[in-house]
Amino acid sequence: KAKETGKNRIVFYNTPMNAEIIERAIIEKHLRNALDNKEFELHYQPQLDIKSGKISGFEALLRWNNPELGPVSPLKFIGIAEATHMIVPIGEWVLRQSCKFLRDIEKMGFQGLSIAVNISMIQLLNEDFAHMVIDIIEEAGLNPRQVELEITESILMESYEVIAGKLKLLRARGVKIALDDFGKGYSSLNYLKSLPITTLKIDKSFIDTISNGNKDKSLTDLIVKIGRSMDLCVVAEGVETQEQMDYLVKHKCHRIQGYLFSRPVQQSEIVRKLNEQYYNQNTFQEELAL
Ligand code: C2E
Ligand code: MG
Ligand code: MG
Ligand code: MG
What we know:
The protein is 46% helix and 21% strand. The chain is an alpha/beta fold and 290 residues long. The chain has an 8-stranded mixed β-barrel with strand order 3-4-6-7-8-9-10-11, surrounded by 4 helices. It has a two-stranded antiparallel sheet with strand order 1-2. The longest helix is centred in the C-terminal third of the chain and has 23 residues, at 267-289. It is globular and about 85 Å long. Residues 59, 118, 150, 180 line the site of one magnesium ion. Residues 24-278 form the EAL domain.
C-alpha cells in the first residue's frame, strides 16, 4: 500500500499483505526454472497395512530445494504453481517420477506395492489429463491398480461433471482414486456416492483428536465406519502417537500413515526399510519352521 503524504513523498507501509505479495512473486520467479534446473525431488511416505503388518504402498510428496531460497514447503509453493498453471508440467513430472520409483522397487523384487500421487484440480481440468496418466503408467510398465490419485474435496466444487467423467474413465482402466483430507472443508457425502472413489484418507485434524478422554474422537470412528460401509479402503494420515495407532487398529482402520511409522523419506531409505521388513519376515518364518 502506498500513500501520498503532504510533500508528495510516497511512503510504503510494510503491511503483512505487502510482504506476502512480494514473497509470492519471488517464489513464482524461482519456480519457473525449478523443473529445468532439476530442483525438485520426491520423498515417499510408507503406508502400513494393519492386517498384514506390512508396508502396502507409499505417498509421493514433492520437495523443492532452491539454491537461493533453500527448501520451500509445498504448502507455500503448490498454491502458486496452481495459480500460474505451472502445476501441469510439475504434476506430470511427479507422476512419471513416482511410477518410475515403484517400477525400480519392483525390479528389486518388492511386488504388489502401490503409489499414491497428489493431483491438483488444475491438472484434472487439463484436456488430456486422463490420457497423460494412462500413458505414463503404461510407459512405466505398472498395473494401473498400483497407482492411486489423491484428490481433495475442494477440487470437486468446480466443474464437477468434467472431473467426474475423467475420474470414471481412469477408474475403468483400474486406477484408484483417493479422497484426501476427508472431513476437512466442504465435506459432502454425495461425492462419496457419485464419484468412483476407492480410498478415504481421514484428515489429520481428526487423528489429532484421538487422545485420552476426548469425546470428539468418536467422529474418527464414525468416518471409518462410513468408509467401510461403502467398501472403501480407509487410511488415517498424520498418525503420530501409539495411542492414536491403538485406537485406529481397534476401530478397524485399514491403513496407517504418519510420523509414528515413518516420515516421508528418500528412495534409498525406502529400499532399506523394505529390505529390513523382508529380512525380519524371513527370520520369523525360519523360527516357526524350527
Ligand atoms: P497431503 O497430501 O495431505 O500430504 C500429507 C502431509 O502431511 C505431507 O506434508 C506429509 O509430510 C505430512 N505428514 C505426514 N505424516 C505426518 C505426521 O504424522 N505429522 C505431521 N504433522 N505431518 C505429517 P507435505 O509433504 O508438507 O505436503 C503438504 C501438502 O502439499 C500435501 O498434503 C499436498 O496437498 C501438497 N502436495 C505435496 N506434494 C504434492 C504434489 O506432488 N502435488 C500436489 N498437487 N500437491 C502436493
Ligand atoms: Mg495426499
Ligand atoms: Mg493432498
Ligand atoms: Mg492429506
